[in-house]
Predict the structure of ZP domain-containing protein.
Amino acid sequence: MSLFRSCAIYFIVIAITSAESAFPPSLRYPLPVSINKMIDANLTCDLRSFNVTITLQYPFKGVLFAKDFSHECNTPGTLSNSISINLPTSGCGIRLSSRLNEKGQNQMLYSVVLVAQQDRHLRQIADQEKYLECIVEDEVFSIKSPSMADVLKSELTEKRGKNQRIGRMKKDDPESDVGEELNEVLSASRAWMEITPEEDNPGSANTLKVGEAAILTVKSTLPAGIGWKVVDCVAHDGLGDSSQKLLDDDGCPIDELLLPSPEMGPIQPISLMKHQEAMAKFAAFKFPDRDRLHLSCYLELCRGFCPEVDCGDRNETSENRFGRTLSKGAQGEVLDRLKVFNSVEVLAPAIDDLRKTEKSQLSVLTSIGANEYRIESYSYLTV
């Protein structure tokens, strides 16, 4: 029994010694790391830009960038304790989401993950990531459409004139009343896009996995006399280098497996306005070299309502799908197109694991091939 224990102890000592000798001292006993911490962040944002000024403990000589966009969305340090970066909200991984504030009101916010790389060219363990949120004023998403404003002004003026003729309105300045009502209606108009998991999970609301059920929602609050629909949707990598068309100019899907036509929800009347949402359920996907998926669509605004389009016959032209050409001032006339966009992080753990397995198998096969070559060479030399 003592001989068995002695052998076991011997082999254990040999294994530990071999493991220690397999790694250099720098890995077995890592040196302490000096981290230039981010101690403060000042944020401002509007519809088109996300501006950040980061304050660090020490002068910063590295580079600050949006995660996944180190070469395209960055700014170099200048040996100052503070560094600023300006990012477009339509790319660089900027995400728009909504939540209820303390008063129970809907609150919109942009978010991004910034990376402070300590060296301008090298990634190190001392590099830091920081998740930032910037609350966006609700007025930022108001719709600015001159053509829609002209239609509403004409309708309000006509309505005021009729009311005056039948004695309902007796104010001296009807034009002033029309202007006030028009401003009220336009300032209340909103449109934006959200991308969320189908299953409500607060812990992963900002992240999807490839193949996971997700929902694209376009939300709008518009004047009662204005119709709308979702058209011309595109998926891109955040820079426009890689893109995939999802809906055509009529709102018809290019490939229903990628994104079907959004379904219009019920109308919720709000005084002179109406709130409505269009939703499309899809399986999350991503571009190979990015973990951020960006989607952009256009809201087509119409007088009264937007005509329905038959997407079934792909041989018809865009004009023929409507069945007729709409004249100016007719119901269904297209007034304007407004762009809405958003992004979401999409991970592919199954794909990444498969690639690691394939790489490992390839490495093993390469090693086996090399050994066979050595054996054959040795045999040849022996002969």
Notes: The mean pLDDT is 82. Residues 349-382 form the longest helix (34 residues). The chain has six helices and 18 strands.
